[in-house]
Amino acid sequence: MKKKRVAVLGSTGSIGINTLDVISRYPDRFEVVLLTAFNNVQLLMQQVRQFRPAKVALSQVHLSSLKAEFKGRIKFFDVGKDLPDLVAEPSVDIVVLAMSGAAALDPFLSAVRAGKTVAPANKEALVMAGDIILAEARKSGAKIIPVDSEQSAIFQSLEGHRREDLKCVHLTASGGALLRLPKSQHGSLTVEDVLKHPRWKMGAKITVDSATLMNKGFEVIEAQRLFSLTVDQVKVVIHPEALIHSLVEYIDGSMIAQLSVTDMRIPIQYALTYPDRLCSGLNGIDLWKLKQLNFAVPDLRKFPSLALAFEVARIGGTAPAVLNAANEVAVEEFLAGRLGFLKIYTLVEQVVLLHKSVSQPSLKDIKEADAWARETAVRLLRKGK
Amino acid sequence: MKKKRVAVLGSTGSIGINTLDVISRYPDRFEVVLLTAFNNVQLLMQQVRQFRPAKVALSQVHLSSLKAEFKGRIKFFDVGKDLPDLVAEPSVDIVVLAMSGAAALDPFLSAVRAGKTVAPANKEALVMAGDIILAEARKSGAKIIPVDSEQSAIFQSLEGHRREDLKCVHLTASGGALLRLPKSQHGSLTVEDVLKHPRWKMGAKITVDSATLMNKGFEVIEAQRLFSLTVDQVKVVIHPEALIHSLVEYIDGSMIAQLSVTDMRIPIQYALTYPDRLCSGLNGIDLWKLKQLNFAVPDLRKFPSLALAFEVARIGGTAPAVLNAANEVAVEEFLAGRLGFLKIYTLVEQVVLLHKSVSQPSLKDIKEADAWARETAVRLLRKGK
Predict the structure, then answer these.
(1) For site-directed labelling of B361, which of A219, B193, B329, B368 has its Cα 20 to 30 A away?
(2) What gap in Å lies between CA B22 and CA A221, rounded to an integer?
(3) Do B293 and A293 touch (CB under 8 A)?
(4) Pair A109, A165 in one domain
(5) Ramachandran assignment for A246, one of left (phi > 0), alpha (psi -120 to 50 degrees), beta (any other)
(6) Which of B118, B119, B110, B45 is nearest to B81 (CA)?
(7) Residue A293's closest chain B neighbor by CA?
(8) Are A271 and A147 within 8 A, CB to CB?
(9) Are both B207 and B251 inside the same structural domain?
(10) CB distance B276–A161 less than 8 Å?
(11) Chain-wide mean pLDDT for chain B?
(12) How far is A251 from chain B (nearest CA, A)?
């Protein structure tokens, strides 16, 4: 069997680490050809020693220390500018987009244009420019197999059923760290409070987005793009156990759902092995011990970010890119201790309200909207001080 | 579009009525070519007037009254002996096996041999001779699309996924009418008590089988046959809401489930329209209102019939036919008020223990075992009095 040659973009983050864990179980099936990271040089070097990729990209400032150790056996690149070229090379079969943020957009587009299979865990690129990415994928025949557990669940629940029979999708939301905390206490939340996610261990940015439910809002837009849905075809239901990862409802009233324990290695592995499955070493949910699954309607007054994301999804055009960019700035400020938790929403809403969305935007329009949103957010932050 | 020509065997029972309800929504898609019933002449005549099948079969004694009304426009047959020939005719595309009991075995086999699509709601035929039926289906290319909600859920959860990646299936069981009644009170249960099923409106026989969990035991054997599983690959979990109709667990730890409101028209319609789906007029489950799904391990001491069915599944051969036949006799006695509720199990167990199973049985072996079990049950009943 020919090995699948995998590029892992963002290999030192939570998804990247899990991706390499999956790959290490099946050395006869996968070959790591590219690892990339920004600043976690120590972990990256460990990974390079273990997986021996031919190519590595990281921040320019760290290049010299690594080059010394691997003297010519491995080629080093600048993560800030070389990723689009690297993912398009013939030596790559599948690109795991495990890096977060808008920086994933260019390599995503490049991989799709080159006809690669792309396994995106990154939400931002799809939120910003999902329509363009999907249009390019249709042109090149590139396959996009989502890694995000909710999108993977929808993908799996659509396999084997006719796309035209789909009525809507139901994204489940664990509800984040603040599900049961009264809104009156949200104002005084510290970074530490918010980073305690009850179900998933993830990076700081996405954990904050989970607490505000902005993450679920991004997933609404992402699902819209990935599966060509209208806003009204995407529903969100709170499901604190996070065991049903999402459901697809068909026109006959039947629903298909995907369930598993909350371990990212399952959707990662599915994306890597699709259409096959392999043993993951993880069992299914123990239904005899499970007792209960709970469901609730999301409280949009308590979590206005989700309502805002639905509104932005309805507007479309460059609005999702603005939502994402403003949110990146706001969450960064919050994580740095310079912005209160409730102010994340206020800032993002302000930027969105100031934006005039361009419909059917080009990539240039999207990048301009992204830059404008960041500048505007920073300007508003300065004014607020 | 060419209409699907449907034969409904047992059209006056619960499944038959629902099947005709589904068909009546899509007169441009389906044509009823055969209706059969035993004794409910009045309803059958109504159905014949509405759907105008070319052929009708019912008990010999009722034939004359119907022949008078429909004078030559419809051909009448004897339900006791003509079904195997009728279902095999070229005018039939799909056979809905909505009749209950062992009488379904011969028409099932005949339809399968003739390469028809068969939609079985009947459990007994598959329990008795599932291996033979499936082997014939493989030979002729006949498609079997189960109507039973649990088997339909498994069928739907397998579509689009590789059969070799299946780890096991989880049959959900509502737990029947007695789920919360202490075992100490089972002895004094009346027929009326037992016939109050909390979730599904069904015939009397199957409602009793649901109360003892023998019905779930039959489904274990049925699932084994339909999906070529070992006994250990079939699990049962109590799920009182009966909304998740069953789940398939894959080797990667992922589970796919099918859910819907408890309305038999959904799996019936799926079997009729497969691989397409059509609007059923029924919505998906309202997840915002659902609140909770509950799960529990089945209590085998309280419901020994399920344990017995697993044992019989393990023995295989003619044992399942014996289990089914003895149970038919016992439940009939119970429904007639001649046997206590707990004695259903005692009698069935006695017959099973007396049986010497024939492995890899022929159809003749199975029918002999069936007859032997019925005689033995009757003999034991007489002795008990």
Answers:
(1) B329
(2) 36
(3) yes
(4) no
(5) left
(6) B110
(7) B293
(8) yes
(9) yes
(10) no
(11) 95
(12) 5
Q: Tell me which chain B residues have a C-beta less than 8 angstroms from the C-beta of A156.
A: 161, 254, 256
Boundary residue ending a domain (B300, B324, B349): B300
User: Do residues B248 and B326 both lie within one domain?
Assistant: no
Tens digit of each residue's pLDDT (9 = 90 or more) over B87-132: 999 999 999 999 988 899 999 999 999 999 999 999 999 999 999 9
Range of the domain at B122: 4-147
**Can you tell me which residue has the tokens 């197999």?**
A145
pTM of the complete model? 0.96
Taking an 8 Å cut-off on Cβ atoms, the answer to whether A162 and B275 are in contact is yes
Q: Give me the mean pLDDT over the B217-234 stretch.
A: 98
Q: Measure CB to CB from residue A251 to each of B237, B277, B288 and give the nearest one.
A: B277
Six token digits for residue B128: 């008795």
In-domain check, residue A220: no
- One domain, residues B207 and B250: yes
Instruction: Tell me, yes or no, whether B116 lies in a domain.
Output: yes
Do B129 and B234 reside in the same domain of the chain? Answer: no
Amino acid letter, B45: M
Query: Does the residue A366 lie in any domain?
Result: yes
Co-location of B165 and B196 in the same domain: yes
How many domains is chain A built from?
A: 3
* Domain stops at, among A105, A127, A147: A147
Contact residues on chain B for A297, CB-CB shorter than 8 A: 288
Q: What DSSP character marks residue B286?
A: -
Same domain, B91 and B173: no
**A289: closest CA of chain B, how far (Å):** 7
Chain segment B34-52, per-residue pLDDT in tens:
999 998 999 999 999 999 9
Determine the Cα–Cα distance for residues B125 and A221; give it in Å rounded to an integer.
49
Interface test mutation site (partner A, options B237, B246, B255, B276, max chain A beta carbons within 10 A): B255
* CATH code of residue B49: 3.40.50.720
A193-219 burial, b for 16+ CB within 10 Å, e for fewer? ebbebbbbebeebbbbbbbbbbbbbbb
Question: What is the number of alpha carbons within 13 Å of residue B78 lying toward its C-beta?
Answer: 5
Q: Is B279 inside any structural domain?
A: no
Q: Note whether B99 and B80 are within 8 A (CB).
A: no
Q: Cα–Cα distance between A170 and B95 in angstroms, integer?
A: 35
Exposure string of A12-26, with b = 16+ CB inside 10 Å and e = fewer, is bbbbbbbbbebbeee
Mutate to test the interface with A, among B233, B254, B294, B300 (most CBs of A within 10 A): B254
Percent of chain A clearing pLDDT 90 (strictly above): 89
B356 in the same domain as B293: no
Task: Please report the ipTM that was assigned to this predicted complex.
Answer: 0.96
pLDDT at B138 over 90: yes
Q: A117-156, pLDDT tens digit by residue?
A: 999 999 999 999 999 999 999 999 999 999 999 999 999 9
